[in-house]
Amino acid sequence: MAFCSMICCGKGVDRKEKGKKQPTWRIFSLKELHSATNNFNYDNKLGEGGFGSVYWGQLWDGSQIAVKRLKVWSNKAEVEFSVEVEILARVRHKNLLSLRGYCAEGQERLIVYDYMPNLSLLSHLHGQHSAECLLDWTRRMNIAIGSAEGIAYLHHHSTPHIIHRDVKASNVLLDSDFQPQVADFGFAKFIPDGATHVTTRVKGTLGYLAPEYAMLGKASESCDVYSFGILLLELASGKKPLEKLSPTVKRSIAEWALPLACEGKFSELADPRLNGKYVEEELKRVVLVALVCADNRPEKRPTMLEVLELLKGESKEKLAELENNEVFKNPQSAVTNNDGISTAEESSEIIKEEKDPKPVTETELEKAQDG
Ligand SMILES: Nc1ncnc2c1ncn2[C@@H]1O[C@H](COP(=O)(O)OP(=O)(O)OP(=O)(O)O)[C@@H](O)[C@H]1O
Ligand SMILES: [Mg+2]
After folding, report:
1. At 150, phi and psi to the nearest 5?
2. CATH code 1.10.510.10 for 121-345
3. What span, in angstroms and rounded, lies between the C-alpha atoms of 11 and 25?
C-alpha cells in the first residue's frame, strides 16, 4: 500500500527545528487504541464526520488523544486515509493539528491526534459551548490570525503546496489556551508545481464552497480563501454560514454582511454575545477582509499571505486600499459571477434541508452540475 511505504520512510526522520527535537508520529496497535478509548465506547465519542467517528482516549502515559475511526472500508476511503496520513506526516506548524500516529490492522483504519480540550470553533459558536461565551474578542482575533497562519503555511510554505478544501468551523480546533489548530487534510490535494488549479470532484461543506469550485470543480488556493472568508464572518458575527429565510430560500452569511458593511453598520455585524465588547477597528478589519475573501470572483480574492498582513493590520496603506475596494462601492459585483451565474448557495438544487452543514455528496453535485 502506498501509505505504508511512505510511513516506513517517514518514521526514522528526525524532525529537528531550531535545535529542538519535535516529537514524531508512530504506529499504534489496535489493542492499544481499544484500551485507550474503552473499546470505542459511545461515551467517549466526540463527534462524527465524513470519515467516521472521533473518540476521546487516554494512553498509558496519561496523555489524551483523539482517535478518528474510518466508518466503512472501501477503496475510496482507503485513498482518503492515505492522503490524510501522508499530508499530516509531512506538515508541522503551530496552527496545524499534527498527527500522533495511525493504525492499520485488517480493515480498521484509525488516525491518532492530540486531543484538543477546547474542541472545535463550531462547538463554541453554535454547539455545546455556545451558551458559555468563552470566546471573547481577543480570543476571536487570535483564532482568526492563527488559523490564517496555518492555511497560509499550507498554501505558501509547504512543498508541494497544499489546498485544504474543507476549511470550516468544525475543522478549527482549540487547544487549552484557545490557540487554533486547523485540522482535517483528508480532502486536501497536492498541487503540482506550476499548475494554477486542479479539476477534481467537489468535496467540502455547503455554505463554505467557492462558487467556481461548487459549479465547475476548479480547486485552487483561492477556494480555501473563500471558505476562510465565510469562517471569518462566522467568527465575528456568531451567525451560521447559511441562514434559512423560508423553507426554500437560504441566504449566505456574505450576502447578509456585505450591505451592512457597505453602510458602515459594523456594530450590527458583531456577535450579540460579545455584548459590545470588541475592538471596533479590528472588527471592521475582520469583516472587510472576510468580504474580499468571499468575493465570488476568484481572481479578486487576496492570497492567504495578504489576508494575514491585513488581519494583523501591519500596513496602513493596504488597509486603506481594502476600505476602498470596489466590492464596498459596487456590492452587486461580488455576489454575482462574471458569467452571471448565481452563487452555488443560491442554487436550490444543492441546498439540502439540514440542521448542520454536511459534506456535499457526489449525487448532490452531479444534480447541481446538471441543473
Ligand atoms: N483532535 C481533536 N480534539 C477534539 N475534538 C476533535 C478532534 N478531532 C475532531 N474533533 C471533533 O470531532 C468531531 C468530528 O470531527 P470530524 O473531523 O470527523 O468531522 P467534521 O469536522 O464535522 O467534518 P469533516 O469530516 O468534514 O471534517 C468534530 O466536532 C470535531 O471538532
Ligand atoms: Mg473535521
Report:
1. -60, -50
2. yes
3. 7
User: Where in the sequence numbering do the catalytic residues fall?
Assistant: 166
**Residues 6+ positions from 135 with CB-CB distance below 8 Å:** 124, 125, 143, 178
Contact 171 CB / ligand 1 (< 6 Å): yes
Per-residue pLDDT of the chain (371 residues; tens, 9 = 90+): 333 333 333 343 344 444 445 557 888 999 999 999 999 999 999 998 877 899 999 999 999 999 999 887 676 667 767 776 777 777 889 999 988 988 988 888 898 999 999 999 999 999 888 888 799 999 999 999 999 999 999 999 987 788 888 899 999 999 999 999 999 876 665 555 566 666 665 666 778 989 888 887 777 899 999 999 999 999 999 999 999 889 988 899 999 999 999 999 999 999 999 999 999 999 999 999 999 999 999 999 999 999 999 999 988 899 999 999 988 987 776 765 444 334 434 333 333 333 334 444 444 444 433 43
Our answer on whether the CB atom of 98 is closer than 6 Å to any ligand 1 atom is no
Rounded to whole angstroms, how far apart are CA atoms 175 and 145? 15
The CATH classification number of 28-115 equals 3.30.200.20
Ligand 1 within 6 A of CB of 47: yes
Pocket test for ligand 1, best of 119, 123, 128 (most atoms within 8 A of CB): 119
- What is the whole-number distance in angstroms between the Cα of residue 293 and the centre of ligand 1? 24
Atom nearest to 49 CA in ligand 1 = 19
Q: Which residues pair with 58 in a beta bridge?
A: 64
Domain residue spans in the chain?
Answer: 28-115, 121-345
